[in-house]
Structures are given as structure tokens and as C-alpha cells.
Amino acid sequence: MTDLNSQFQHDIAELARTLGHAHRLNLLDAIAQGERAVEQLAQQCELSVANASQHLQHLRRAGFVQTRRDGKRVLYRLGEGPIHGLLAALGQLAEFNRAAMRELLDDSQHTPEQLEAISREELLERLREHSVTLLDVRPADEFAQGHLPGAINIPFRELQQRLGELPPSQEVIAYCRGPWCVFSRDAVAALKAGGLRARHFANGVEHWPGALQ
User: Fold this and answer.
1) Does residue 91 form part of some domain?
2) Active-site residue, selected from the candidate residues 32, 154, 176, 202
């Protein structure tokens, strides 16, 4: 039994070691949105194709991603098992730790961040009332693959130049991929700097049933 437990713990450590790199987590986050070729992943994660390929091979050997051929292209998708849940749990733990650290350093910095997030229940109610503008700040190709009902798409990198497209009378709720994606928080800062009322939906498309179907 001891040997079996030791092997199990070793296997867990190997999986954790594979995930212990920010580039690999970014790649997994991108692949979780749908199948991607290595060139797309490299561009999205701001890596060279060679660097992205190297990290993808590590993820593939550990079972985090699978591949299939589409003509000359090799497409990457998530592997079997509860990988979505694992990524979500890691994101939640990271957010918890960050929030706890902020609270220790300065309570006044922690409280505003709590207030600017919107829950799924409140967002649903506000959408039914047509009292908010739902803003998807992911790249256009991800938006095309699936998005929250009623959302409009302005990629984060274009947001400052396109603030005029948003109605000034409504609160804007920004979202991106999920807990690992910081674009929604950065978007809130840009929206507020532009004079708009804004909050973010932290869970994004990952926790909205049917959003990517």
C-alpha cells in the first residue's frame, strides 16, 4: 500500500511539474476555448512557434492535450479527464491567495475589487431587465466560436479606440475566458478611465452553460 501511495504521489507531482510554467497554463487556457493549431496558439499566447511547440509537447506527454490532423495542420484540444475543473480550481485558489494577500497588505485595496465583480445571478437578472451592456473582450475568433447571450465583442486591445461604441447610459459588464484571464479586469479599468460605469464577470465563458456550443 505504501508503494502504491508513493507512486500515486509521484504521478501527482509530475502533473504539477508539467503545469508549473505560466506559458503552459496560458496555452491550456487558449485550447480550452476550442481546437487550435500551433500557429494560432503561438500568436494568441505571444510565443514563437518553436517555443509554443515545445511547451505543447510537454502538455501532450502528460495527457493535458490531444492532437488530430486536419490536412497539413495539427490541431490541439484538451485531453480526457477533468481538466476544465482543474484549471478552474487552480484559478480560484490563485484568486483566493491574491485576495488574502491584498487584505493583509491593505484592506482598502481589497474591498473595491470585491465590489466591482458581478455574480452570475445578478448578471442574469440585469440581462433580463436589459439594464446592462455585456462586453466580450476576447479576440474576435474566440467570440465567433461562442459567447454569452446578447454580448457584443470589442477585443481588449481595441477597447480604448472603440469606447464610443458603448452606450454611456448603461453599466458595462466585461468578461473574457475565465478565472485565468485578466482582460476583463483590465477592461474595467479602461472603461472607468473613459467615464463609463463598469464591472467584470470573473468566471467568463467557462462557467456559463452552453456558451461555447
Assistant:
1) no
2) 176
